[in-house]
Amino acid sequence: MSDGPKIVHRTEQPYVGIRETITMSTFNVVADRIPELFAWLAARGLAPAGAPFFKYNVIDMERELEVEVGIPIATAVEPDGDVLYGTLPAGRYVAFTSVGSSDDHIAAVADMFDWAAELELTFDMSDTDAGSTWACRLQVLNTEPALEPDVTKHETENLFRLAD
Length: 164
What we know:
Blueprint: E1 3-10, E2 13-22, H1 28-31, H2 34-43, E3 53-59, E4 65-72, E5 84-88, E6 91-99, H3 102-118, E7 125-128, E8 131-134, E9 137-141, E10 155-161
Antiparallel strand pairs: 1-6, 2-4, 2-5, 3-4, 3-8, 3-9, 6-10, 7-8, 9-10
């Protein structure tokens, strides 16, 4: 973990996204849709208001994950086709930056969970039959993988919403 966890306050943020139900082995299905979102925005004359992200809605590592690839925008828009409109919730988040491959990222998340447990922090999530359901769990891509082929240099900002 290159930037240790801290608690941050975020305002709500509108975004557009595409939702997919995937497995860990088919994660590229959702990742490969990032260019589609950029093209959707460009076709409407809209500029991104931040870096693309993955929003994990439901996580069951053994079965399926419901994940959105999203891009922050400045104002509300009408959804169209596969592209949905949403708002990332305001609130307190645990935030940290990780650098490296997906294995490095998984280790950084585990370290963050240990840190949060020591502080007795409660995340805005619940366990359901479908898996862990999150109010907002983000993985913001600070490094564009297509532009930086060396995965050891990939920087990701991670944000996990805390319960009120």
